[in-house]
Amino acid sequence: MQFTRKGLKAEGFAGFRPVQDLETMRIPQGTGLFAVIAPDGFTPRFLSKSTAGVFKKKDPSLPAAALAAEWVDGAVVLYMGKAGPGSKGNRGLRRQIQEFADFGQGKPPGHWDGRLIWQLADSGSLAIAWKELPADQLNRAEAGYHAAFVEEFGRLPFANLVQARTKAGA
What is the SS3 assignment for 22-44? Predict the structure, then answer.
C-alpha cells in the first residue's frame, strides 16, 4: 500500500475533497474508512489553540512541542478513521465525516479522535477521502492500514494517537 493520493485511489478511496469545500450530500451514507490528506507542498504550522470543540470539559489543544512530536515527515496521510453503522444503524461515512468537520468548527463532539487535525493552520485545505466497506470488514481494514502505515513510517499518522487493532480471532 502506498500512502499517497495515487495509492489511496488504487485502494478504492474516492472523494479527495478539501474540508473547506466538503459537500456532505455527496458523501456516501454507507459504512467505511476515511482519510485526511495533506495537499502537495503542505507545511505544518501549529495553532496555539485548536479550533475543535471541547470534549467532556477537556480542551483539545496541545502544546506546539507535543504536536511537532506527532508530525510524520513525508507523510501525505494525516489521519485514518472509520465510520461504522452505529448502535441504531444510522451512522456511516456521511454522518461521521460531517461530525468530524463540525468538530473542527468548534462544535462539541461525541468523541475526539483526530483532534490534532484542528490545531493545524490551513486545516480547511486538507482533503478528505473515503472508501465504502461493509461494517464487518471495518475493524480489520482500519487495523491493516494502521499497521501498514507504521511499517512504512515507523509510527501512526499524525492525528491517530491510538493504533487500531482487531480482536483475536476476528
Answer: CCHHHCCCCCEEEEEECCCCCCC
What sign for the dihedral angle of Cα 128, 131, 136, 141?
Answer: negative
Mean pLDDT by 10 residues, the chain (170 residues): 93 95 92 96 93 82 92 96 83 92 83 88 95 94 95 96 68
122 closest CA partner among 26, 40, 63, 65: 40
Q: Measure the CA–CA gap between 145 and 147, rounded to whole angstroms.
A: 5
Q: Which of the 8 DSSP states describes residue 128? A: E
H or E element: which one contains 92? Answer: none
**pTM of the prediction?**
0.91
85/88 Cα distance (integer angstroms): 7
Alpha carbon distances (Å) from 43 to 9, 65, 71, 123: 23, 16, 11, 11
8 A C-beta contact, residue 34 and residue 96: yes
